[in-house]
Design goal:
This protein has about 250 residues and is α+β, with helices and mostly antiparallel strands. The chain folds into 2 domains: about 140 residues, YqgF/RNase H-like domain (Nucleotidyltransferase, domain 5, 2-Layer Sandwich); about 90 residues, no CATH class. It is about 45% helix and about 30% strand. It is built from 7 helices and 10 strands. Strands 3-2-1-4-5 form a 5-stranded mixed β-sheet, sandwiched between helices. The protein has a 5-stranded antiparallel β-sheet with strand order 6-7-8-9-10. A hairpin with a 2-residue loop joins strand 7 and strand 8. The longest helix is centred in the middle third of the chain and has 33 residues. It starts with a strand and ends with a helix. About 25% of the residues are buried.
């Protein structure tokens, strides 16, 4: 039921930051930081295994270009590592410009009040999350352009159907739900749905929220029993949806 995720690596000489997307490839979340050995082959094998264990469908690697877009020594080292990684995995590897990700990650740490002594522990994984966010955003734009380039109605219907899931209640009733979004709230993931076949006007606007537990093929949807928590998650969904609508308006205006 859960789509393949994407994983991103921020490849450094001493550390490699790791980030992974939510199951619907809407958001990027920082994960662990891999501390490199002096064996590039072993490092590549370790990351290939990590990607396999996470059950992802694509690997995104950051490319450290200079600010003017030219390549340098670190770019060559990163390309060398990626070639080793290609030999260790059958997953597709995408390259993403990472020129400003470390700067963004440092700003995020400062805003979060992380002390200087602790920043090295998380800066690489945060930078990897920005790399992955950039890739996911680019993929969304690409998909939108494909739709605008006269995609057939049949493909459009297929994409809509691909977001419809069947959820079975405890009493055995199966209901079709349309996936609207997956959001993060207080470190937990929640999936937001609407009824795919609403019977009333009230049901057309109703948002149904489940907690997302587990990862990959083991991911399951669980009802949110706490009413206060449910209200808080719904408020967060509304806030993010309003931000999304505002960004779409800006894109259309441009």
């Amino acid at each position: 039921m859960i789509a393949k995720r994407a994983i991103a690596f921020d490849i450094g000489n001493k550390r490699i930051g790791v980030a992974i997307s939510d199951p619907f490839n809407e958001y990027a979340m920082p994960c662990e930081t891999y501390v490199r050995t002096r064996n590039i082959d072993a490092d590549a094998s370790a990351l290939a295994k990590l990607a396999k264990d996470k059950g992802v469908g694509v690997i995104v690697c950051g490319m450290p270009f200079h600010y003017d877009g030219s390549e340098g020594i670190q770019t060559a080292r990163t390309r060398e590592f990626i070639e080793y990684l290609r030999e260790k995995t059958d997953l597709p590897i995408e390259l993403e410009d990472e020129r400003f990700t470390t700067m963004q990650a440092r700003e995020t740490q400062i805003q979060g009040g992380i002390k200087c002594a602790d920043r090295k522990k998380t800066i690489d994984s945060i930078a990897a999350s920005y790399i992955l966010e950039s890739y996911l955003a680019r993929e969304k734009i690409k998909n939108k352009k494909l739709e605008e380039l006269n995609m057939s109605n049949e493909n459009e219907v297929y994409e809509e159907e691909d977001r419809i899931f069947e959820v079975e209640s405890e009493d055995g009733v199966v209901e079709k739900l349309y996936h609207v979004a997956t959001i993060e709230y207080n470190g937990e993931m929640y999936c937001c749905f609407q009824k795919a076949e609403p019977e009333t006007e009230e049901e057309e606007d109703e948002i149904i929220i489940f907690a997302l537990k587990g990862e990959g093929d083991d991911a399951v949807l669980e009802p949110v029993e706490d009413e206060d928590l449910l209200d808080a998650v719904f408020e967060e969904f509304c806030r993010q949806y309003e931000e999304y609508e505002a960004s779409e308006d800006e894109i259309d205006a441009e």
